Amino acid sequence: MTTRTLLLDSPFLLGFEHTQRLIERAARGAGDAYPPYNVEARDDGSLRITLAVAGFSADQLEVQVEDRQLTIAGRRDGEAGESAFLHRGIAARGFQRAFVLADGMKVASATLEHGLLHVDVNRPDPAAQPVRIPIKTAG
C-alpha cells in the first residue's frame, strides 16, 4: 500500500485548501484521453482549446465555468434502432473534460465547426499594476 502526501498538506501552508482542490480536480480529469484536444496560444495572447467532438451536435455539448474550472461535456442520447456495426471505430460515448483556469482568465466564446469545438479563453492583462497596502499602527 502506498500513501501519497501532497506538498500542500504542510502546516506551514495554511489557507491553500482551494489550490489543493484545484490540483486534485485537474489530476482527476487527466486520466481519460477522450476526446483528444489541443491547447493553442494565439497571437493576441489568448488561448484556444479545441476538442475533436465529431458526431456531437451543439445541443449535446455543454461548456461551463465554475470556480475557475472550465468543464466541457458531451452527452449522447440513446439512439433507438441503432445500426448493427461490423466495425465501430468512432467513439459513441459521452465525455467530460475539465481545465483549471488561472486567475483572471475568462471564456470568450465556444464555436462548433466541422466536428471541432473551439473554446477561446482570454488571458488577464500581463501589465497588472502593483497594489500598495497601507500599514496601520495600533496605539
- Molecular shape: elongated
Structural class: mainly beta
What's the CATH class of one domain, please? Answer: Mainly Beta
Helix content range: under 10%
Major sheet details: 4 strands, antiparallel
For the termini, the CA-CA separation is 56 Å
The number of helical segments is: 1
CATH architecture of one domain: Sandwich
Q: Report the β-strand fraction as a percent range.
A: 25-35%
Can you give the mean pLDDT? 80
Number of strands: 7
Strand order of the largest sheet: 1-2-7-6
Q: Low-confidence spans: pLDDT under 50, at least 5 residues? A: none
What Rg is obtained from the alpha carbons, in whole angstroms?
21 Å
CATH fold annotation of one domain: Immunoglobulin-like
Q: Strand-and-helix sequence, N→C?
A: HEEEEEEE
Q: What would you note in describing this structure?
A:
It is a single chain. The radius of gyration is 21 Å and the shape is elongated. It has a domain of 83 residues: Immunoglobulin-like (Sandwich). The longest helix has 13 residues. The model has no long low-confidence stretch (mean pLDDT 80). It has 139 residues and is mostly beta strands. It starts with 16 loop residues before the first helix and ends in a 17-residue tail after the last strand. A four-stranded antiparallel sheet has the order 1-2-7-6, with no helix packed on it. It has a three-stranded antiparallel sheet with strand order 3-4-5. A hairpin with a 2-residue loop joins strand 3 and strand 4. It is built from one helix and seven strands.
